[in-house]
Amino acid sequence: MTVPPEAEREGVGDVARLRSIPEATVARLALYLRTLGELGEQGAETVSSDELAAVTGVNPAKLRKDLSFIGSYGIRGVGYEVRPLLHQLEQSLGLNHRQAVALVGVGNLGHALAGYGGFDGRGFPVTALFDVDPDLVGIHINGILVEHVREIPRIAVERGITIGMIATPGPAAQAVCDLLVSAGVQCILTFAPVVLQVPADVEVRKVDLAVELQILAFHVARRNLDEVAGSSVSTGTVNGHALVNGAADNRTVNGSGGIHS
Amino acid sequence: MTVPPEAEREGVGDVARLRSIPEATVARLALYLRTLGELGEQGAETVSSDELAAVTGVNPAKLRKDLSFIGSYGIRGVGYEVRPLLHQLEQSLGLNHRQAVALVGVGNLGHALAGYGGFDGRGFPVTALFDVDPDLVGIHINGILVEHVREIPRIAVERGITIGMIATPGPAAQAVCDLLVSAGVQCILTFAPVVLQVPADVEVRKVDLAVELQILAFHVARRNLDEVAGSSVSTGTVNGHALVNGAADNRTVNGSGGIHS
DNA sequence: GCAACTTTGTGCGTGCGTTCACAAGCGGCT
DNA sequence: AGCCGCTTGTGAACGCACGCACAAAGTTGC
């Protein structure tokens, strides 16, 4: 784009570049980051866009354009050096310093999330647990004390919480969200099936498991209708699906969004 | 569009209409369905597109266009009758008959999912649990016996499983996926952080919790950069965010697909 | 029965995201 | 040193999706 040849690589230039990264690209950058980490552990020195695209299930051209948003770190004729690219991705995605996470709601799902090792290992240590249930407040999960929700404002500030995860029942989610926001938390990941009202400077991402299943159920229904309406043979039906799915390589990438943003 | 006035409401017409529904719309239809269910339980008879849009956090015009994909079930000047619309949504999304779900991987996350009440209540009864861990095989969770993964082909067919959920560690996911596919399962929801290779007639949706957090971390980083580079006052920064976020009403809707989603 | 109001359904413009295709650049080979 | 093959980076076209704005259609009140 209009990147100055050798002007400031750090500083305000980064702001402008980060600000302009499309949301869909950010989601994939996170995917590349994790995949690159695995490739690096396997001893890979360089990766071509075609290889990385195959592993992540993304179109190679799209991958190159995604990476171009954070700068030119590839070598033409060779590919991308894993180590430098990994470092640049971490910096661009804000993973150079760890983000403390607070988890509210230690019921069924929350309990699992608290014990899930995938967060701490990836730079997101869960450093606070909250609930309202007297039977849960006071117990330890993975060595972390469950405290009462009313303590959120104090503890969140004390421990420098930057990300809140809400795993409460739907009706309690908005109140919990308000508490987190009042404590200065600006990023929230919620599993509660309600729309959260937040100020403009707070970012909310919602993961709705029931909706995910319903989307799948829709595809089941469509397939069944296809089979009823399909001309005759089964192979013909399969070809029909391939057409419906569009490009064959986006089947395993979730929308997301959004997302699912 | 080109809907015949009073031609066949059922039959091939449905196939053509369902086939053409955009993926992003399907994700939102599932959202409307759940929200409508709640409104119905609260005794609402009719809902206007503005009301439903406010609750679901969607643009009213977009909502009306979404609903128009499944037919004209609104009354001008009044709104939508909750009951008929609910019924039509259920039929279009394939929820008129329950979909049996198999859950593979009863570790941390899987255990929570097995005990999560949100599935059974929404027409997705979890009717089979699988794992490889000898300590887990044989126990009951929520009254369901955990069986060995090698039994997937037999049991999935016996119990008419149509949806598979994979909550295993990443390395095991592909093998489990292959087993499910061989048992005829065509819809898979996976939490494993790997790209699953499947035939063209199998639908995969992926929920990647670590990626979700990384996306949030990116926004934290962007905010921090903003504050450093921001002119002076904090209110100016807030306004900046509002602009970056685009329309204020899509903050709480996840990309999914982004498909997501 | 008519007029005013309300709400749906949708045509159209706009912007984002994806993909193709190719020029530019880098390494290896002779 | 020069050529050849490979891979990146990106310009450009395409398609999808979003949202505005308005006509069509129904309801309420007089």
DSSP strand count of chain A? 10
Strand order of the largest sheet of chain A: 6-7-5-4-8-9-10
Largest sheet report of chain A: 7 strands, mixed
Would you tell me the structural class of the helices and strands of chain A?
Answer: alpha/beta
Greatest interface by residues involved: A-B, 95 and 94 residues
Portion in helices of chain A? 40-55%
Given the C-alpha coordinates, what overall shape of chain A results? globular
Percent strand of chain A equals 5-15%
Q: What Rg of chain A, in angstroms, do the CA atoms define?
A: 22 Å
Number of helices of chain A: 11
Ends apart, CA distance between termini of chain A: 26 Å
Order of helices and strands of chain A: HHEHHEEHEHHEEEHEHEEHH
**What is the arithmetic mean of pLDDT of chain A?**
82
Oligomer: homodimer
The low-pLDDT segments of chain A are 1-13, 231-261
Protein model, in words:
The structure is a homodimer of 261-residue chains. By secondary structure, chain A is of the alpha/beta class. Chain A has helices at residues 12-19, 23-41, 49-56, 60-68, 82-92, 108-115, 117-120, 152-158, 170-182, 209-229, 234-244, and strands spanning 46-47, 74-75, 79-81, 100-104, 126-131, 140-141, 144-148, 161-166, 187-190, 203-206. Chain A has a seven-stranded mixed sheet with strand order 6-7-5-4-8-9-10. A three-stranded antiparallel sheet of chain A has the order 1-3-2. In chain A, α3 (49-56) packs across α4 (60-68). Chain A is globular. Residues 1-13 and 231-261 of chain A have low confidence and may be disordered. The structure holds a DNA duplex (30 and 30 nucleotides).
